[in-house]
Write a structure and sequence with these properties.
mainly alpha, 2 helices, 70% helix, rod-shaped
Length: 50
C-alpha cells in the first residue's frame, strides 16, 4: 500500500460516521435532548396544559 492510498483510507474512515458506539457525539446529543425537553415544557406551559 502506498502512502497516498493509506492516507486516503484513513481519511475515509474518519469521515464515515455511522452513529455507532465509537461515535463520540454524546455530549451534543445530550445537550440537544435537554434543549428539546425545555422547549416542549415552555410550549406546554404557554398553552396552559399543565
Amino acid at each position: 500500500m502506498t502512502a497516498t492510498a493509506a492516507a486516503t483510507t484513513t481519511t475515509a474512515r474518519r469521515r464515515a460516521r455511522t452513529g455507532g458506539p465509537e461515535d463520540r457525539s454524546g455530549l451534543v446529543e445530550n445537550l440537544l435532548g435537554r434543549t428539546l425537553v425545555v422547549v416542549i415544557a415552555m410550549f406546554v406551559t404557554q398553552l396552559g396544559l399543565m
